[in-house]
Each structure stands twice: as C-alpha cells, then as structure tokens.
Amino acid sequence: MEKLVAKLRTDVEVFFTDAQAQIDKGNKAAGTRARKASLELEKALKAFRKQSLDASKK
What we know:
The chain has helices at 2-25, 28-57. The protein is an all-alpha fold.
C-alpha cells in the first residue's frame, strides 16, 4: 500500500502542476496532461479504496 500512496502523491503533484499551467498560461497541452493525470488518479484511488477495505477486514 505504501507504493500506491507514493504513486498517488506523485500523480496529484503532476495534476496540480499541469492544471495550474493551464489556468495561468492558457497552456492547452498542460490541460491535456492534467486530464490524463486525473484518469490515473481515479484508477489509483479506486485501487487504494480496495486495498484499504481489504486491510481493514484482516
């Protein structure tokens, strides 16, 4: 689960960096990267939820 949390932290940082670049500079490519990062975040958060529930059942 530690690797998953580290991946989430990295994905969140990437998302915020790219989203801020789109907001501040109107960078369309950064917006595309932010959307891609949000999809990765969604997958990782679902995996975290599953692992967390499994851990709480033990």
